[in-house]
Write a structure and sequence with these properties.
about 325 residues; alpha/beta; Rossmann fold; L-2-Hydroxyisocaproate Dehydrogenase, Chain A, domain 2; 2 domains; nine-stranded mixed β-sheet; three-stranded antiparallel β-sheet; binds ligand NAX
Length: about 325
């Protein structure tokens, strides 16, 4: 057994938290030899509910769960943390514009970025799930100037998984047989699900499904899948979102599958695929398994994908402008 690592989950009493915590404690993220101390950060009104969740975690008798911290203080929640899942944020309500959501949730990530800068472990790595995830990750990163930029990421893995599933159903192929799906851009309606690199063995998926299906059915279905789930379930994606967060950190910590990549929203330095500098942008990434990642280089992009990447990049620049006063320097 390794020494325990500290894992922070914010929004731990929320619906994604309710699925995520149990799977982390079960070893689904860091493996069967890695004990964890769960540091659960919430806001004061829901601390009682969080205690109920913690009681259930105890009742699972997880051998890998070596401790729990329940707190509404970010300095406690991030103290010594190695991996942080930033899930806590307010959901978008009817009639709310995206910019309203950004202004509502942005300040949360200022305080959390500062706290991580002050008290997290030197090897801290961060995944932002709370929406608008990409811009929230930028805010947290910017308020943690002592933490390297490549430690921050936002989640487009759920979109990646949704895209894999849609394609698998259409082609009647197991999802595991695909390689090289990409989600480019922002986790929003401008995201760019790109199947032009996807292969099943030596077969190119785009040749099997045709451009018309790709553009007219696949793209809108993936982009609107979140709304379709809300309509059917009466609540937003929770278990599938937790599963995507688990996949994202699992691969970052333990390595991506040989011969494949995953979609991760990471800092864009302006040198990759026309994505603007200074935003958190979804790229195809390979992780060797030591907590680093590399953006996959030199893919040939179709003109339409390039145009869509530009649109998503412009949206991220607009979001950045909305939160300019929350960014440090
Ligand atoms: P819930 O409303 O069930 O839970 C959110 C929790 O966050 C609540 O318990 C709330 O008390 C807590 N919270 C609010 N402010 C906090 C703060 N300052 N510190 C700590 N905790 C705080 O939402 P849930 O369904 O769990 O979704 C959480 C977030 O994930 C939302 O922002 C949602 O939009 C986002 N999503 C992102 C996805 C992605 O692919 N990036 C997909 C799923 C999900 O919609």
């Amino acid at each position: 057994m390794n020494d325990p690592i500290r894992v922070t989950v914010t929004g731990a009493a929320g619906q994604i938290g309710y699925s995520l915590l149990f799977r982390i404690a079960n070893g689904d993220v860091f493996g069967p030899k890695q004990p964890v101390i769960l540091q659960m950060l919430e806001i004061p009104p829901v601390m009682a509910a969080l205690e109920g969740t913690a009681m259930e975690l105890e009742d699972c008798a997880f051998p890998l769960l070596h401790g729990m911290v329940l707190t509404d203080d970010a300095m406690v929640g991030f103290d010594g943390t190695n991996w942080a899942f930033l899930v806590g944020a307010f959901p978008r309500k009817a009639g709310m514009e995206r910019s309203d959501l950004i202004s509502r949730n942005g300040p949360i990530f200022v305080g959390q970025g500062k706290a991580m800068n002050a008290v997290a472990a030197d090897d801290l790595r961060v995944l932002v799930v709370g929406n608008p995830a990409n811009t929230n990750a930028l805010i947290a990163m910017s308020n943690a100037p002592d933490v390297p930029k490549d430690r921050f990421s936002a989640m487009t893995r759920l979109d990646h998984n949704r895209a894999l599933n849609q394609l698998a159903k259409k082609m009647d192929v197991n999802v595991a047989d695909f390689r090289h799906m990409v989600i480019w851009g922002n986790h929003s309606s401008t995201m760019v699900p790109d199947i032009t690199h996807v292969r099943v063995g030596r077969r190119k998926a785009i040749n099997a499904v045709g451009k018309r299906w790709y553009k007219k059915e696949f793209m809108p279905t993936v982009a609107r899948r979140g709304s379709a789930i809300i309509q059917a379930r009466g609540a937003s994606s929770a278990a599938s979102a937790a599963n995507a967060a688990i996949g994202h950190i699992h691969d970052w910590a333990q390595g991506t599958r040989k011969g494949d990549w995953v979609s991760m929203s990471v800092y864009s330095d302006g040198t990759h695929y026309g994505a603007p500098k200074g935003v958190i942008f979804s790229f195809p990434c390979v992780c060797p398994g030591d907590g680093s990642y590399q953006i996959v280089e030199d893919l040939e992009l179709q003109d339409e994908i390039k145009t869509r990447i530009q649109v998503s990049g412009e949206e991220l620049l607009k979001e950045r402008a909305v939160v300019a006063d929350l960014l440090n320097g």
